[in-house]
């Protein structure tokens, strides 16, 4: 009985898993059927309409870290070299060769591609492997026998997807902000929609909330707009630069020794290389622009008053709690992804089962600490894969683009069904592209 893996969101992780599953089946090796539920399009978040970019900014990770990287498979004894060779057919270089762009890319010095080009690459892979995509939105996740039942609202109306396992991907919605509906407060999506439409922002005092790469991309775009001062609001004591040397990068592409680190060492490594840090390229731009300053604190409250947005910042200094109020003409909420966006989808029966496996209420901390080797919630059956929450336990490369090939290995190497599964209805959905 072939298992079904349902993936919420047709981004890089979904494409990587679907590609390797297709290659395995082509080699005669059993692999689950992969069905992706996507409300927009393949790689939508890398395109202007997805709300996370205008499509023109450069990819922060090298494009060679593609859907098969690092090409070190360990799924099929004595045939892993063959598996990697087959996956190379869907590499970044193969895409460039297949679309007549390879020589030009080499001659230009192998530049990082714009986000929209990366999206085209992912779409090309999805087409090549025949990835099944249901165009719709997941509205609920419940239990059906030994598996999951995903309620969906698709182009054909409401429906149900039955799956033996689920993988939730993506950063959530980019439309949220600290003061919805106020024209002086922009969400990530609102900011990038304006940038994509070439609307110039003109303001005296602008605040950008967030100290990670989402906020960094917004800053990189703001440099070209008519603003007098830009204040970055983040809880860190300063704006740290992401470590991008060989040893730091190895943590992302080769997590072999990650489990041997203490919890404190892992948290420290993530803080120095991944969470709340700017890339060296963005930091160089910050140094060259004297409009930028940093304000330490967390936004506790926001209110519109006197043609300004007044932000109340909370910070701890010298063991004391301190609150300060600052006024801005425009606030851009770039606080980034919501890694727990999917938790609101669970029905009560599904939530009860998850909390039973966690040994308590479902929280972000409990979920992170439960993630096992296969990137799923430990002790939970049916499987729930959460690669975006796996960094603490399994390595910092899994939540991002740094080791998509290893990610697909971990997921596809998991046991997705119980030894004697109950009879299940089959999905009637057809691929939608």
From TrEMBL:
Its keywords, alphabetically, are: FAD, Flavoprotein, Monooxygenase, NADP, Oxidoreductase
**Superkingdom of source:** Bacteria
Which pathway does it take part in? Siderophore biosynthesis; mycobactin biosynthesis
* Protein name in the entry: L-lysine N6-monooxygenase MbtG
Q: Which reaction does it catalyse?
A: L-lysine + NADPH + O2 = N(6)-hydroxy-L-lysine + NADP(+) + H2O
Q: Which family is annotated?
A: Belongs to the lysine N(6)-hydroxylase/L-ornithine N(5)-oxygenase family.
**Signal peptide: which range, if any?**
none
Q: Does the keyword Thylakoid apply?
A: no
Q: What is its EC number?
A: 1.14.13.59
Co-factor requirement: FAD
Query: What's the top EC group for this one?
Result: oxidoreductase
GO molecular function list: L-lysine 6-monooxygenase (NADPH) activity
Question: Which SUPFAM superfamilies does this chain map to?
Answer: FAD/NAD(P)-binding domain
């Amino acid at each position: 009985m072939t298992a079904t893996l349902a993936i919420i969101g047709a981004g890089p992780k979904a494409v990587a898993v679907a590609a390797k599953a297709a290659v395995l089946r082509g080699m005669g090796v059993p692999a689950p059927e992969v069905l992706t539920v996507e409300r927009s399009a393949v790689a939508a978040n890398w395109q202007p309409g997805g709300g996370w970019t205008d499509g023109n900014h450069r990819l922060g990770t090298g494009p060679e870290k593609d859907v098969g990287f690092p090409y070190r498979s360990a799924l099929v004894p004595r045939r892993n070299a063959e598996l990697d060779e087959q996956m190379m057919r869907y590499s970044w270089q193969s895409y460039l060769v297949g679309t007549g762009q390879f020589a030009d890319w080499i001659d230009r010095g192998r530049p990082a591609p714009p986000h929209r080009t990366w999206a085209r690459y992912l779409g090309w892979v999805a087409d090549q492997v025949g990835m099944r995509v249901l165009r719709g939105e997941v509205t609920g996740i419940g239990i059906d026998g030994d598996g999951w039942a995903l309620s969906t609202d698709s182009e054909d109306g409401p429906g149900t997807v039955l799956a033996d396992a689920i993988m939730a991907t993506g950063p959530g919605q980019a439309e949220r902000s600290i003061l919805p509906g106020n024209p002086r407060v922009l969400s990530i999506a609102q900011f990038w929609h304006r940038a994509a439409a070439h609307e110039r922002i003109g303001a005296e005092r602008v605040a950008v909330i967030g100290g990670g790469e989402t906020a960094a991309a917004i800053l990189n775009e703001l440099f070209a707009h008519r603003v007098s001062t830009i204040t970055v609001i983040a809880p860190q004591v300063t704006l740290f630069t992401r470590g991008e040397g060989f040893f730091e990068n190895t943590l992302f592409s080769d997590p072999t020794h990650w489990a041997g680190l203490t919890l404190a060492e892992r948290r420290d490594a993530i803080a120095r290389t991944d969470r709340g840090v700017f890339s060296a390229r963005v930091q160089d731009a910050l140094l060259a622009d004297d409009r930028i300053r940093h304000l330490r604190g967390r936004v506790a409250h926001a209110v519109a008053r006197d043609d300004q947005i007044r932000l109340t910042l909370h910070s701890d200094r010298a063991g004391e709690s301190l609150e300060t109020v600052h006024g801005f003409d425009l606030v851009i909420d770039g606080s980034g992804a919501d890694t727990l966006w999917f938790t609101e989808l669970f029905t009560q029966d599904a939530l009860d089962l998850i909390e039973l496996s966690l040994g308590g209420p479902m929280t972000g901390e409990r979920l992170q600490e439960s993630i096992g080797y296969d990137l799923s919630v430990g002790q939970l059956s049916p499987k729930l894969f959460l690669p975006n929450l796996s960094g603490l336990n399994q390595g910092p490369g899994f939540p991002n683009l740094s080791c998509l090939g290893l990610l697909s290995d971990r997921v596809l190497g998991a046991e997705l069904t119980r030894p004697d599964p109950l009879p299940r209805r089959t999905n009637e959905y057809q691929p939608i592209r």
